[in-house]
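Q: For a teaching session next week I want to show students how multiple molecules come together into a single three-dimensional assembly. I've collected the sequence lines for a complex. Could you give me the predicted structure tokens for the whole thing so I can convert them for display?
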Amino acid sequence: MELSQLVQAIREKFPEAITEERKAAIVIKKESLLAVAGFLKGEFLFENLHCVSGVDWKDKIEVVYHLYSFKHKFMLTLKVFLNMQDLTVETLSGLWKSANWLERETYDLFGVKFLNHPDLRRILNPDEWTDFPLRKNFDRPDFFRLPQSDGLKAGG
Amino acid sequence: MDRYELMGEMDTKDIKTGEGWFDPAHHPSNHPEPVEGLRSEELIVNMGPQHPSTHGVLYLELRLDGEVVIDCRPHIGYLHRSCEKIAENRTYTQFIPFTDRLDYLGAMNNNLGYVLAVEKLLNLQVNERVHYVRTITAELNRVASHLIALGTFAQDLGAYATPMFYCFNDREKIVELFDELCGGRLTYNYMRIGGVQTELPAYADKYIKDFIKYERQKLKEYNELLTYNAIFLARTKKVGILKPEVAINYSVTGPMLRASGVKWDLRKEEPYMIYDRFKFDIPVGANGDSWDRFKVRLDEVSESLKIIEQALGGLPAGNAVSKVNKVYKAPPGEVYLRTENPKGELGFYLVSDGGLKPYRNKIRSPSFSNLAVLPEIIRGLNISDAVCVLGSTDIVMGEIDR
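A: Of course. Below is the structure for the complete assembly, covering every listed component.
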């Protein structure tokens, strides 16, 4: 299977969805993510959502989905760019259950809100945290005070 | 005496299909008779974060009805050291020791996954001998990791000390070799971008061959001791069944996926490095229950031994240790590379902006996804079986929390 083949198929079905075609990845509009992902899962048997990662590009946040098809032995990279003002994207956990935890991790570390997610809580960091540590502008505190506690805890 | 004779009435067909074995769905505690006037309610039990059978700081919130688990919510993050953030502030070479501490039982495999990803990003070629030395060490580490999984699983089921000591004793032989090789017993920091740290010692060839011979004998013993032991079968057969479609949907990988009957091994299906040169099989389970997960790991040990034997036979002369750069400047771009680790598929997603440090280093750890599926498996089981299932998933918190 070739990437160009997939791009063509998506273009035919969703003419507006693809914003950019890269060497090994497809960048799509965030509004059409769910529809395109469902189409890929159904038509091209991408049964496995392998990895969800976020990348902070300072003015926007990129969410990267690695989809895998056992049948075609093909790894597809889907990308969505989100504006800092509107960090929301539709969840894929309805299609792949693995998205549940992987998206929770991206929410925890980057602050991307996944709409209609069944259980969007922090996963690695404490629930009381307000920061998103993997953003580039994250300032590592020397000390931090836990809410509802009166003592200082050594941090960093 | 033949092991089947020991088991009396049961024949081999029963072992393969699990038919005739105790089915937890028919246990009386799953169908409690309501008693008039007796108040009953659900109970929340917090298992962990400090619990001997959770293999680290895992906290399971179990909702119980009597002894049956209705729901389970895993809470993770107690071992979070933010390796991904650390990676953004280190050069590519400096991050290698941190990969040791992800899955600390398979440090060599983590090293390998990371350096392969960086080498792909840098478009760096290494010589033949490096490939072979890496294969040998990585497969030895896989054996060591699986031995711990087998030993601790038996320990979780109450086979106190004996199987664990046996397995740790075997693992010790591998660890001693690694100690000689790179000075570490747990965290090796052995692979380098463009090579390895040290050459195999002169006695390694004979030592490893002796070990293979010894381990093959031992595996037979484990089959007698555990695999076809009637108590062990009763505790593990048909307990915690994971269906293949569920496993794939949850992105479960490694021995857990194969135990569910999906014949998938990256080393075979999408060979990286030099794995396409070796002859080995992919062990697959039939039912996807705890026993299958145990058996698949046990069989994988012998498959790994086959690979090591072939790699030792084909080990080319040359130099595995060559001069490597202290820092590498990666061209802008990104790479996603996965390798088959003892626990499953480990992926590194590296993004470079052309600097000395990675712009982003995302670690896709196998145990993370393998744990996410746990509530699906243990719903409806007894709480004692939940421990059995957790032991059979073989998770390492170090790579879940990162």
